[in-house]
Amino acid sequence: MRQLTSFLAGAFFGALVGGITALLLAPTSGEELRARTRERIGEVSDDVREAYAAKVAQLEAEVARLRSGKKTEAA
């Protein structure tokens, strides 16, 4: 699990650095670049909020399950 988390973190940051580099080297005007950057940051922010909400819901369901004393199958 630790290796998977490390890999995913590395892939995310690599994609982030690659995306920023591509934006900075793209042949577009400054205004267009800023507009696209703002739009993309908004999209990423929305994605992060959705992922956060899904994880919170998952964890709340798991806490409720543990409090009720129900058991699940071992993985």
Protein described:
There is one protein chain. The protein is an all-alpha fold. The chain has one domain (2-68). Helices cover 84% and strands 0% of the residues. 0% of the residues are buried.
Question: What's the gist of this structure?
Answer:
The chain is mostly helical and 75 residues long.
Provide the gyration radius in Å. Answer: 19 Å
Give the domain tally: 1
Distance between the first and last residues' Cα: 14 Å
Strand content: under 5%
Let me know the average pLDDT: 86
Helix tally equals 2
Helix-strand blueprint:
Blueprint: H1 2-25, H2 30-68
Any key phrases for this structure?
elongated; 2 helices; 75 residues; mainly alpha
